[in-house]
Every structure is written in structure tokens, then in C-alpha cells.
Design goal:
Helix content is about 45%, strand content about 0%. By secondary structure, it is mostly helical. It has a domain of about 60 residues. The longest helix has 13 residues. The N and C termini lie far apart (about 65 Å).
């Protein structure tokens, strides 16, 4: 039997790119609350869409501690000024290297 207070939703897998330290803080915060990263992000976004803060003062303190731990010195004023660094080829993952190999034109013999 489905609890009437629960809403049925369809979730999809997504490949979102995010600043590394922001992601670390989010993952740690989700883990602290024993929830998935996706559930945390959904909650944050739904609160933001309603113009409400998703975090209690207690949670904000926890986030500040996690930001210090992961050396995250960014705040909301940085949100429209972030520029991604170009990673050198030796720092790319195996999947990224494979994609680049497929995109590269074949060498003529």
C-alpha cells in the first residue's frame, strides 16, 4: 500500500559537472544526513524554487565546517564568475581519453 503522503516521481540519471570541492561538501553533507546526493540536491532545488532556505542554522554550521575541511573558499558571489581550468591530457580519466581518441581523425599510413 502506498502512503498517501508520498509522491510518486520518475527519476533520471544525469551527468552534471560541478566544482570539485562543492561536490565534496555536498556528498559529505548528504552522507551526514544518511541520504543520497540526488535527494539532497532535489531538496535544495525545490526549496530554492519556492524562495526558501533549505538549511537550518544547525545545518549551515555543519556546511561551514565541511567547507573549511575541504578548503572550499567560494560563496554565492562566485557563482557567475567560475571558469573551468583546462586539464592536461595525463590528468584525464580513461573514459575522457577514449572519447578524445574517437574524436581525433584517423592517422593516414
Amino acid at each position: 500500500m502506498i502512503d498517501e503522503s508520498q509522491l510518486l516521481v520518475e527519476r533520471v540519471q544525469t551527468g552534471v559537472r560541478m566544482e570539485k570541492r562543492v561536490l565534496k561538501v555536498l556528498k559529505a553533507f548528504a552522507e551526514y544526513h544518511d541520504m543520497s546526493l540526488g535527494d539532497l540536491l532535489e531538496g535544495i532545488v525545490l526549496h530554492a524554487f519556492d524562495g526558501k532556505t533549505p538549511f537550518s542554522p544547525e545545518s549551515l554550521k555543519r556546511i561551514q565546517d565541511l567547507k573549511k575541511f575541504y578548503a572550499l573558499d567560494l560563496d554565492s558571489s562566485a557563482s557567475h564568475r567560475l571558469k573551468e581550468i583546462k586539464r592536461r591530457a595525463e590528468n584525464k580519466t580513461a573514459v575522457e581519453k577514449k572519447v578524445l581518441e574517437k574524436k581525433a581523425p584517423e592517422k593516414k599510413k
